[in-house]
Design a protein that fits this description.
Blueprint: H1 3-16, E1 19-24, H2 29-34, E2 37-39, H3 41-50, E3 55-59, H4 62-71, E4 76-78, H5 94-103, E5 109-112, H6 117-121, E6 125-127, H7 132-137, E7 143-147, H8 150-157, E8 163-165, H9 172-175, H10 179-188, E9 193-196, H11 202-205, E10 210-211, H12 214-223, E11 228-232, H13 238-244, E12 249-252, H14 267-276, H15 285-299
Parallel strand pairs: 1-2, 1-3, 3-4, 5-6, 5-7, 7-8, 9-10, 9-11, 11-12
Bound molecules: 1,3-dihydroxyacetonephosphate and iron/sulfur cluster (SF4).
Amino acid sequence: MDPKEMHQKIRDLTRERRAVILAHNYQRPEVQDVADMTGDSLGLSIQAGRTPAEVIVFCGVHFMAETASIICPDKTVLLPRMDAGCPMADTITAESLKRRKAELPGVPVVTYVNSPAEVKAESDICCTSANAVSVVQSLPEPRVLMTPDKNLAQYTARRVTKEILLWEGQCNIHDRLTRDRVLKAKAEHPHAVLVAHPECRPEVLDLADAIRSTTGMLAYVKESDAKEFLIATENGLLYPLRNQNPGKAIYEVSHEMVCPNMKLTRLGDVLSALETMAPVVKVSEDIRVKALKAVTRMLDVKRD
Ligand code: 13P
Ligand code: SF4
């Protein structure tokens, strides 16, 4: 089947199934194009909570579909590729977090949504890259444990008046970006504004003109008067950035910034998910109820 035909079939089936397709900003161009909504982790969580659809097809990675299942227990949540995981989310388990909590009585746990549902269930509040500073500031305690991304935690620590304890996790895609690589890219594009994701290392963020979530980057580039941008995040974001800013030059900072998990989902997988109504992601009710508290508490906090 050619891609155009497949796109149309997916749209027809989406209507028939009363479904909505949500796609993360890192997804393949053709998957972003077939989606009803694209966005960052926070935006997609909010959309999952608001949609009147009965079925959510989540084009992203496993923790994102789990978050949709936590927020919408009555909807069927499909993850077209069940093998689309997140190595950062895999750096923490409920058991390892419980052990750390036992060493830190009275210290609240802020958990990045890039984490398993069981870990959210053991956390006081969740955060995303779009609201980490506001989430931490919303807590009354002076010391906070942030999991699992140490880079997001260090970024937050520099912007809050609290002591932040780290978890040794990171996104291998963002963390592989070095200061030297960024300096080289800046030398190649001396007039470009550098926009970076907070999952990058602190020494990379030190070179950035702006630090944002993926949707925050889209808004920043759109609103900026500058004409050239260097983008320090997963390269899937270049597609919507270029689409939305035809008069601006958008450069990747490194061709190595590609998340294989985010690239697994293809149009054929989306079509197959809608045809077979599988694979389904469903969080068990005991975990869901506890995780929902941490997610809902986060959704009450504004974006940074
Ligand atoms: P955001 O789109 O929320 O900034 O997340 C980045 C990410 O790594 C998702 O996997
Ligand atoms: Fe996980 Fe990083 Fe891929 Fe996002 S980009 S899904 S944090 S590995």
